[in-house]
Amino acid sequence: VQFVNADSIAGLYFPLIAQRPALSVYFGSLILLVSLALMNLVTALVVEDAISSARMDDEMSAIYSKREMKKLRPSIVAMFRSLDKSGDGHIQIDEIIGSLKDGVMVPKELKEYVTEDRVLDLFDAFD
Asked: Taking the model in full, what pTM does it have?
């Protein structure tokens, strides 16, 4: 345990090296290999934990987005029905863009999602 932790190990290997100097190569390489192996294990654990945490964050974000969209779906459907100028039950992208330019009422819970920049994404999501 003292050797692996490099905790005052000179008392262990110095007398041996004094008697046989060739052991310095052995102890030197052993110290380097053990230290590097432990550093690699610790680094691997930290990286694995970070990747796992990021994956969980992505999963939670996806779950939250799905819940949010489910909650907003009735408002979106009502807004799309009001955008159907032709009354044929189908909305053309020109109808949406024209209605937004004319200042159609967008429900307050959708104001942050429905902009001219995002309207194409919203149209594709429900197409």
From this structure: 0.45
